[in-house]
Structure formats: C-alpha cells, structure tokens
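2024-03-11 09:14:02 INFO worker-7 job=invfold-0412 stage=load source=structure_tokens
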C-alpha cells in the first residue's frame, strides 16, 4: 500500500500539465457535494493554456488546425495564427462591453471562427453556450433565454452537401418575438448568401474582428470560473444547461486526450469528426487537444460530399494518425462498402476511437479490419456531457480490448454496477446500473439556473452512498470488463445524439392535429436507435392519414432539429396505459421493434393494444 498515491495526489499531478498563474490551495473541496470545487484557490487562463504557452515554448509555427471546407477550400492555422485570431476576437468582444461571467451563444458551422470564438470567450472569462447549428430557431431561442446570452455569434449560412443553407436567418427568427437579452449578433461571412443585418445590433466579423488588434493579454481566472454551458436532453421536455468550469475540466480533458489517444504533440495528426455543438467537440476538438498542442484536422461538411470517399481522402491527404468518430458513421461506412476505404492509403492511422453510443461487435471488427488495417487499437470511450471528459475506455497498449466493451475506468475514475436499490453487484458477472463513486475534476458543476434539478437527476437516487447515477445500464463480464448497454431512462440515442422522448412528444402535440403522442427509441441498424412515434389524432384531423404523418415529421424537424425527426409515425386510436395512466413504453418498443408483445395484463384495455400491434 505504501506506494499507492491518493486520489487527490493523482489529480494534483494531472493538473500539473497546465500552466497555473497561481497554484491551488486545496485539490478537492467536496464539502458542498454534489457541487465540487477542484483546485480551489488556483487561477489560470484556459485559452492561454490552449494557445499562448505553446507559442511561448517555440511552437508558434506548428499547425494547430488543418481546416478543410466542404466545397474544397482549405486553411491551415498555426498556433501563432490562432493566437492572433483569438486575440482579435477577444478585443472585439471586450469592446462590445462583454465582461467576465457574461454568456455568449455560439451558433456556427464547423469553421475556424467557431473555435476562435470559443477560445476568445474562454480568454475573457465569458461563458459560452454552443448551440448545434442544426438546431431550429426555437431551440436556439430557448437556449439563449435560459442562459440570458448578451451576444450571439453566427455565420451568414452553412454549406450542406453543396448547398448554402441560411443560418443567420434562424437567429433573426429566434430573436424576432418579444424582448431578448441579446444585444449584438456577430456574423461571419461563410457562404456569401444574402443576409439581412439589423443596424445597431448586427456586426460583420470581417468588419470588426478582422480589424481588431492581434495583441491581447490573457488574465487569469479562478479554477472554478464557469467555462461553458452546454444544453443536453434530459427526461423532460426542457433541455438542461450543463455547467462546466475551468481548472478541473481542462485538467481531465487534457489528461484523457493524452492517455486514451496516446497523443504525441508534434508527431500525431489527430481528427475528431464531432461537431463543436456537442460535448465531444468541446473536450476533444477544442480544449483537450489544444491544451496538448495537437495538430488536428477540422472538416466542415458531411462525409458523403462530393462523394463517399471524402473522409478517406482527408485521412490520406493529411496523414491522419488518430481518428475518433461515432459508431453510427462506422455503420454507414459499412453500408457504403469496403471498396471505398480500400481505394485509399490509410496506413498513417495508428489508433481509432469510438464515442457516443454502444458500438456493436460487428461494427467494431469492421472498423478495425477495414479502416485500421487489422493493426490499430480501438478505444471505445464512454462518457457524457455531464462527465466533461472520458471516464471509461481501454488504454492503448494495455489489455486486449474486446469488441464492443468500454473495458475499464481510466486511472483516477471509479465506477460500480449496482441494482435498483443501490446494492453493489460486485466486480464480476453483474448486470445493473452504472454509478460513479468518487468525484472527478471535469464533473458538471450543476445545471444552469437549476441546482435542484442537478441533485434530483444525478444524485438523489443513490444519495446515501453519494454516488453519481449516469442513466446508463452496464454489465461486468466474467473478467470484470465493462460493457455499456445504453440508457435506462427516457432518453434516446440516435446516431450518437441524445434526444428525450418528452421533447419529441411535446413537438408533436404542439401540432393542432395531434391529441396525444408517445415516443420511443427503437433499435436501428444504422443509427443505433430510431425515433418511433405513436399519435392519436384530434377528431377534426382523424381522416387525413399519410399527409399528416409527413407534415408531423416536418414539424418535429422545424421545432427541434432534423436529427429529432421521427423515423416512423403510427396513427393509433389509443395509447397503451396502465390503470394509473402511465404510458407503457416498453410495449410500444415491442411494437416498434416488431417483437412479440410482453405482458399486457396491466393495461386498461388490452384489446386496443393488440389492435395497434397488428397494424
Ligand atoms: O448512453 C451513453 C451514450 O451517450 C450518453 C451521453 O450522451 P452525451 O451527453 O450526448 O455525450 C455523448 C458523447 C460523450 C451516455 O449516457 N454513450 C456515450 N459514449 C458511449 C455511450 N454508450 C456506449 N458506449 C460509449 N462509448
């Protein structure tokens, strides 16, 4: 035991990866659990850690970002370029009167200015809230209002499969009704499409940021200074603004990026295919990698534009060594066929990663054999918006990873499998709920504006033990390795995107033709889960049939995002309910997945349900 280091010593050592303006006085303050304070008393600047210190260390000429635009235009940004651009943006934002702690919404496609905007916020202590550019105007408005953002940064439009789709117009639509807290909208010109500008409110990036001074001195902030809010779906219709802070978050993002991906600065070319609208983009495109002086590829567009070769061409062109993507894309590649990757030299790859949903063993094997040339380790990384950084993953070079298993918590992290009552099911052959038993540096510090919901959602369930309830089911096999089985709550996972059943149901009942709706996630060979809705129509619309189904799908896309569009909508006369009025989703899932029905004895009206099942 004598050579065992304590948890706090371990994390203190990891925090030593960063540049601290002032050292911390206490590694972990858990007195206010479940609201942790890590590295209390320490101060640092997150952007300085991601950029300035690399330039000062003589790496200013190293490429930070190989950016590849969808239409084929490219830009390489060195660390010196990034420093100048982030400084310009920081000077502009400060000039708009934004002050430390203010919130900024970022609603942008995958262009360098999106990353520059995030880092400019971090540099000034502004709290960014990145809203995925695929989200609708109303989803944007909801998030802007919840965070009371003073500024929105966006672009005129975005490239999507060769078309310039408007984006700034959605910001206008979002802000059109009623008062909002937004004072300015800063707009990057990306596509050149006609864009209305509201005088006094809207500013062009190329007329402001581009002309600002490239000198800006970063000021240090408290380790617990808020860094960002990121909205994610919960079990209710209202998205949760997950709050992350500075020192602990950056420590664990940097630590895991290095150990899980075996990243070596100056040698690797790393590519994480996520969008900055999701936590993976925050932790494994922006903060972890840049803190570790990465050279990375950032690609703007879809994997099949102009054709299905695009990702493999990019890997070949830049000599990508580490490739991190989602199982849904691997399954899409499988559908396109192995001759597509086979037409390219992918031998630069030495490590593959997976994130966002369970990877089925077949996809895992295909990924390793066809993309990884049967050589590369695969790291299947389990984590969440709330955990901030990777928690469970094999480490390359250790134990043989099993296809489909997330294996073991990374050093410093502690997990258990428990039953519904919180009984520890041991460390072998157990099937239950995944809990995290010790606090970790990048853990969420709360839900923006709703501390009570934070306690209730994650901590109340196993309050006496003080464990974090992740919302996932998991299995420990005979060797003690972990397999993540998926959500145990009403959260769906579609192509690695988290969507709540309640959100989709509320969009559906928002349509005047729908009286009631129930939504379930059903197994889908490509997307992991597909959204299947059961709707009861109002008397007036009951005979409009197929047209209405089409319109309802469009309505959900408009209200939330095309990613939330139901795969199937079944018009039904009744929903299966228990006598206490609860919708029996388990039965709907049976129908959606074409299974024999489970026990229907508790239903109010079993006959009605049998009729639904026969449809
Ligand atoms: O169900 C788990 C699944 O994605 C959820 C977290 O979603 P989100 O906060 O959007 O973050 C996604 C990217 C980190 C988890 O509760 N999930 C994530 N990674 C895996 C996974 N399920 C199985 N295996 C994974 N590697």
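2024-03-11 09:14:09 INFO worker-7 stage=emit residues=615
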């Amino acid at each position: 035991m004598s050579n065992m280091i304590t948890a706090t010593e371990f994390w203190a050592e990891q925090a030593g990866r960063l540049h601290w303006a002032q050292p911390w006085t206490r590694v972990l303050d858990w007195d206010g659990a479940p609201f942790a304070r890590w590295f209390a008393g320490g101060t640092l600047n997150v952007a300085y850690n991601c950029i300035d210190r690399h330039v000062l260390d003589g790496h200013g000429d190293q490429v930070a970002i190989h950016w590849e635009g969808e239409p084929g235009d490219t830009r390489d940004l060195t660390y010196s370029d990034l420093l100048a651009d982030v400084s310009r943006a920081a000077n502009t934002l400060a000039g708009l009167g934004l002050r430390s702690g203010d919130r900024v919404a970022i609603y942008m496609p995958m262009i360098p200015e999106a990353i520059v905007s995030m880092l400019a916020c971090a540099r000034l202590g502004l709290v960014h809230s990145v809203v995925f550019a695929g989200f609708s105007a109303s989803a944007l408005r909801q998030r802007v209002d919840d965070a009371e953002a003073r500024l929105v940064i966006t672009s005129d439009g975005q490239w999507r499969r060769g078309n310039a789709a408007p984006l700034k117009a959605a910001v206008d639509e979002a802000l059109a009704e009623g008062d909002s807290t937004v004072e300015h909208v800063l707009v990057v010109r990306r596509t050149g499409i006609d864009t209305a500008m509201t005088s006094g409110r809207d500013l062009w990036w190329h007329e402001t940021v581009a002309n600002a001074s490239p000198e800006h001195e970063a000021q240090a902030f408290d380790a617990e200074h808020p860094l960002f809010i990121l909205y994610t779906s919960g079990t209710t219709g209202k998205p949760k603004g997950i709050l992350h802070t500075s020192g602990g978050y950056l420590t664990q993002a940097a630590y895991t990026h290095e150990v899980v991906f075996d990243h070596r600065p100056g040698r690797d070319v790393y590519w994480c295919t996520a969008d900055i609208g999701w936590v993976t983009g925050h932790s494994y495109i922006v903060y972890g990698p840049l803190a570790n002086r990465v050279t990375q590829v950032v690609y703007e567009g879809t994997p099949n534009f102009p054709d299905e070769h695009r990702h493999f061409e990019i890997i070949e062109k830049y000599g990508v060594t580490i490739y991190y993507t989602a199982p849904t894309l691997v399954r899409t590649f499988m559908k396109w066929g192995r001759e597509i990757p086979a037409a390219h030299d992918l031998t630069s790859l030495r490590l593959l990663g997976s994130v966002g949903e369970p990877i089925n063993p077949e996809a895992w094997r295909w990924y390793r054999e066809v993309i990884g040339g049967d050589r590369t380790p695969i790291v299947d990384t389990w984590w969440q918006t709330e955990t901030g950084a990777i928690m469970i993953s094999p480490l390359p070079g250790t134990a043989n990873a099993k296809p489909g298993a997330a294996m073991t918590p990374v050093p410093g992290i502690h997990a258990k499998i428990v039953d519904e009552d919180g009984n520890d099911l041991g460390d072998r052959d157990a099937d239950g709920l995944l809990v995290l038993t010790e606090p970790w540096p990048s853990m969420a510090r709360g839900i923006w504006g709703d501390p009570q919901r934070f306690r209730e959602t994650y901590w109340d369930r196993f309050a006496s033990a003080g464990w974090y309830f992740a919302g996932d089911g998991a299995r420990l096999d005979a060797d003690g390795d972990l397999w993540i089985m998926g959500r145990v709550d009403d959260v769906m996972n579609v192509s690695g995107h988290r969507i709540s059943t309640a959100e989709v149901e509320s969009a559906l009942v928002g349509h005047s033709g729908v009286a009631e709706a129930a939504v379930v996630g059903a197994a889908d060979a490509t997307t992991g889960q597909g959204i299947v809705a059961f709707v009861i129509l109002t008397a007036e619309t009951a005979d409009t049939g197929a047209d209405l189904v089409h319109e309802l799908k469009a309505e959900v896309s408009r209200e939330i995002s095309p990613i939330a569009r139901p795969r199937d909508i079944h018009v039904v006369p009744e929903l299966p309910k228990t006598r206490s009025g609860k919708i029996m989703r388990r039965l709907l899932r049976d129908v959606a997945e074409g299974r024999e029905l489970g026990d229907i004895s508790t239903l109010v009206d079993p006959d009605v349900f049998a009729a639904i099942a026969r449809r």
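2024-03-11 09:14:09 INFO worker-7 stage=report msg="The mean pLDDT is 94."
2024-03-11 09:14:10 INFO worker-7 job finished
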